[in-house]
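Progress note, sequence design subtask.
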């Protein structure tokens, strides 16, 4: 994980933590027992953190989703799977490190796990292109999905990207076509697909590995057709309105559940998944296994129909036209 990093709205917590350090240093230097005061301060810190994280705005959740210490796909793979065998390359161009995947076991359950991957430092960010995949990344993901389908292994997709890479190289190698093919072919995969937005779920870059029987979202993740900054730049001509754009876009788990775009919110440790990777991974693992279990008795045809029905009703609203 990267160095200590704090979000703007966490100021009250950090002030109390600074006071706690001063109190502990005073106790040690003066050899005075202030354990009661220290305990009270720790409780106050916990209460303050809980109050902040129980009332985050949409824009604040976006900030948590982008926290540099937030767990990425490989962190979760290491924390909750065994026997992971990574598969590289799309057999056409190259291996895109912005999307990783391979066979693994989650508590003995065989899965094909695919996910977006970001970096922790300059070198790893350049290697993974900051989590923004090229066309070959989506072609690799499709190759892995078809392998899973061939061997009758369910698929778990972990989504955390601002979007697909929009540079010249992507256009030259047909990024729109690569994502479109993934959307089409994902509906023909006969094994269950569980998609989880673990951080950022941005635009077609997220949707390219986001067609599943169940769409889950972690408590402080977001899922959106455009970033709040991009929306603000278009509608208000000023990125300073990103907080208003985030609210208007309805991108948090709560809104996605209401709109029936997501099926479940996976809880996170107080303070975000970056505070306690082991606990966050346990929450994620439990949700994945529970949702996979729901398909254990289904036929291939029922699994395909379930996925089709899920997406067919999206965007359908009742109302009257004047």
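Output:
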């Amino acid at each position: 994980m990267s160095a200590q990093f704090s979000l703007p709205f966490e100021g009250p917590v950090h002030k109390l933590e600074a006071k706690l350090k001063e109190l502990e240093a005073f106790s040690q230097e003066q050899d005075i027992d202030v354990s009661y005061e220290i305990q009270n301060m720790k409780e106050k810190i916990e209460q303050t953190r809980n109050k902040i994280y129980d009332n985050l705005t949409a824009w604040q959740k976006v900030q948590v989703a982008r926290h540099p210490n937030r767990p990425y796909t490989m962190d979760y793979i290491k924390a909750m799977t065994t026997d992971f065998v990574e598969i590289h390359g799309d057999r056409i161009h190259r291996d895109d490190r912005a999307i990783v995947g391979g066979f693994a076991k989650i508590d003995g359950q065989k899965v094909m796990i695919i996910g977006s991957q970001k970096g922790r430092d300059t070198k790893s960010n350049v290697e993974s292109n900051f989590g923004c995949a090229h066309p070959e990344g989506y072609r690799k993901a499709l190759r892995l999905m078809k392998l899973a389908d061939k061997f009758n292994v369910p698929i778990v997709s972990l989504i955390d990207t601002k979007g697909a890479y929009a540079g010249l190289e992507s256009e030259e190698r047909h990024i729109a076509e690569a994502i479109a093919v993934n959307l089409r072919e994902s509906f023909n995969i006969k094994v269950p697909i569980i998609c989880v937005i673990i951080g950022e779920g941005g635009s077609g870059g997220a949707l390219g590995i986001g067609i599943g029987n169940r769409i889950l979202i972690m408590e402080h993740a977001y899922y959106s057709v455009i970033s709040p900054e991009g929306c603000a730049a278009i509608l208000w001509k000023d990125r300073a309105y990103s907080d208003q754009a985030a609210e208007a876009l309805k991108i948090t788990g709560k809104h996605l559940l209401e709109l029936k775009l997501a099926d479940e919110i996976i809880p996170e440790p107080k303070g975000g998944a970056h505070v306690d990777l082991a606990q966050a991974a346990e929450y994620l693992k439990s949700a994945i296994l529970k949702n996979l279990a729901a398909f254990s008795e289904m036929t291939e045809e029922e699994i395909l129909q379930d996925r089709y029905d899920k997406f067919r009703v999206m965007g359908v609203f009742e109302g009257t036209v004047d």
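The chain has two domains: 8-55, 62-312. Work on this subtask will continue into the next period as scheduled.
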